[in-house]
Design brief:
By secondary structure, the protein is an alpha+beta fold. The protein has helices at residues 38-42, 51-54, 118-141; strands at residues 3-9, 19-25, 46-48, 68-75, 84-92, 95-104, 110-117. The chain is 22% helix and 35% strand. Strands 3-4-5-6-7 form a five-stranded antiparallel beta sheet. Strands 1-2 form a two-stranded antiparallel sheet.
Amino acid sequence: MSSLLIGTCPGQPVCVAVHTYLFVDGLDGLDGLDGLDVVARSDSRMAGLDPRRLLRPGGPLHPADMPREVEVAAEERPEPGPDRLSIRVRLRGGTVIWSGLLYPGDDGGAVEEVRFRLEQYLGEIERAYADVTADRRAARAWRPVAGDS
């Protein structure tokens, strides 16, 4: 079983736009993260979609018994474009399965599917979404006061 770790980029000035990182560990004996997320491993031109879209309660990454195609990234380089990266998400018992993947694993072979424990998967989505919404509330609450530098 793999574990999911979700990160986000705040957008300007760090990146072009706010986007999501989807890290998967536990592949090919990998004990930790190697710094590349599923999106970067699959297509370096892509950047994950906005976390408020991907991670919202009941949103596209939430699994269901019926498999469904989920867009997780869009072309960012060299310029924003029409290409999209999609995965298939489904729930089978207590396991969430991502399929339709194709990126190189540590052993040089292709990774086409990953499996997560449902409780870890949903917990990580909820944690990451809470972080994103808390950061957004804090940014709206902060207002510069005249005369502050």
